[in-house]
Design goal:
By secondary structure, the chain is of the alpha/beta class. It has a single domain, classed as Vaccinia Virus protein VP39 (Rossmann fold, 3-Layer(aba) Sandwich). The protein contains 7 helices and 9 strands. A 7-stranded mixed beta sheet has the order 3-2-1-4-5-9-8. One of its GO terms (biological process) is methylation. It comes from Streptomyces inhibens. Keywords: Methyltransferase, S-adenosyl-L-methionine, Transferase. This is Class I SAM-dependent methyltransferase.
Length: 232
């Protein structure tokens, strides 16, 4: 749930005690990711969705997060899960190691453009051609409360949609076209989208956008020996 470059302190302290609320859509997952799939839950936090996947019958699931505190919590709460703390990129997996990757409410916790691109780009390396990225995140909201805080922090962070919370967190809401663009730039094609609402960490409700995208066949530049994605 955290950025590999910055704002990690919140997730090692206050944020590590939060109860995450961004829900999985099991029916959407089931339509695109078979039970035998090798699944990477990137930004897994304390393994909430990793555990849900295991409970649904997905047996080859790995969770990775940059926060040591969240992974330690996950190992206490879900001792049978394969959870790993890893900061930065590349992750310690071979190209195409996974059939699917989850990226749930991760980009909202990563305010920087470069960090976001590095995350999605690394998932493009790790998901095999034909595999699936299941992204769910929070787009820009149109209510006065959110619009006011976007405007309040836009100059400080240089991006409309980034904001701070009173407990020290820094978050970002996105134009939907940015989320689609990140996915496409990493070599995925958007297959389907769904919108809905989710509970937020501060007890409010926000709209969400879910994207299912399929990894395209490797281009010549993706062939073995070609330069890989930049490290984050």
């Amino acid at each position: 749930m955290t950025s590999p470059q910055g704002f990690l302190g919140f997730w090692e302290t206050t944020g590590s005690a939060k109860t995450f609320t961004h829900p999985l859509d099991p029916a959407l997952l089931d339509a695109y990711v078979p039970r035998a799939a090798r699944v990477l839950d990137y930004g897994c936090g304390y393994g909430r969705l990793t555990a849900e996947l295991a409970g649904l019958g997905y047996r080859e699931v790995r969770g990775v997060d940059v926060s040591a505190a969240l992974i330690e919590r996950g190992r206490r709460e879900h001792p049978g899960l394969d959870l790993m703390r890893w900061a930065g990129f590349p992750l310690p997996f071979e190209e195409g190691s996974f059939d699917a990757a989850l990226l749930f409410a991760v980009l909202t916790c990563v305010p920087g453009d470069g960090d976001q691109s590095a995350i999605v780009g690394e998932l493009g390396r790790l998901v095999r051609p034909g595999g699936v990225l299941y992204l769910s995140d929070v787009p820009l909201q149109d209510d006065p409360y959110n619009q006011q805080r976007y405007a309040r922090f836009a100059q400080r962070y240089g991006t409309y949609g980034v904001f701070e919370t009173p407990d020290g967190g820094v978050f970002r809401h996105h134009p939907p076209q940015r989320l689609r663009g990140l996915v496409r730039a990493a070599g995925f094609s958007v297959v389907t989208e769904r919108v809905g609402s989710v509970a937020t960490l501060d007890g409010r409700t926000a709209g969400r956008l879910q994207i299912i995208a399929r990894r395209e066949a490797a281009a010549a530049s993706d062939a073995p020996g070609a330069p890989g994605p930049a490290s984050g």
